[in-house]
Amino acid sequence: MPPTILSVDDERDVTDLVHFHLTKAGYRVMTASCGREALETIRLVPPDLILLDLMLPDVDGFAVCEILRRQAATATIPIVILTAWATTDAQSLGLELGALDYLTKPFSPRELVSRVRRLLDLRPLAPTIGG
Asked: What angle do CA 51, 103, 121 make, to 5 degrees?
């Protein structure tokens, strides 16, 4: 089964663009339009990587990141912040809260796919049975 990516953004055009390019690259893509929906989706179907907007209508991306990092079941899921918020303070805080990468909108779909692929390739491999 291909790796699953969760794209969390309240802008439908962004999740559609992400879905199109990552599906084309061979990934399974789920979407959520707010922080609460993202947390529920992650609880039910933990993704292999999360693309997380910061400016969400209910629970913001900083809080979602912090919640995920405090829970053992989600603490190691790679998070990439994908946001229009381009300040160095926002970037620093996102990375301090546990995001592994930070991309600003507008973004290059090619660069997004490349960064997703790199982060998924860096994950530790699950041990095989008997070895």
From this structure: 60
What tens digit of pLDDT does each residue of 80-91 get? 999 999 899 999
What pLDDT shows up at residue 127? 42
Whole-number Å distance between alpha carbons of 96 and 6? 21
Q: From CA 97, how far away is CA 16, in angstroms rounded?
A: 27
CATH 3.40.50.2300 fits 4-122, yes or no: yes
Contact present, 4 and 48 (Cβ < 8 Å)? yes
Query: Within 13 Å of residue 113, how many CA atoms lie on the same side as its CB?
Result: 15
Answer whether residue 63 shows pLDDT above 60: yes
